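Predict structure. Chain length: 129.
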Amino acid sequence: MDWFVPNAFFAYKKDNWAVFTGFFIPAGGASVHYPDGSITTEMIGNMASGAPVIDQSLDASSIYISGMVGGSYAVNEMISIAAGIRYVNAENRIKGEATGASGTVNVDIAETADGFSGVIGINITPRPN
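Prediction complete.
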């Protein structure tokens, strides 16, 4: 259970212009510990050894952290446009073990990635309310 997932957003507006920034976790943010394994370790053990799995375990974690900055402009009372840039950093870790009659299979995977993307937006407010 995730009791706390930090997100922070800030904006400053002056006349028709605004700037905004934010820090958030768009995916992941949790860890799991299965001392008796899961369906994933069961399948890995069966595929690798071709025999029923006797003992298994799985630990995994995943977190994606993102930050963004941008600006917006109110064209009129009804239409505003925005553009910005976003950065995302991702880390995934999987460590598992499955033991069958013909041996033990170990999995130890660490994946990292990061990248930038553009953000564009159009807000249309057809009625004031």
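Summary: The mean pLDDT is 89.
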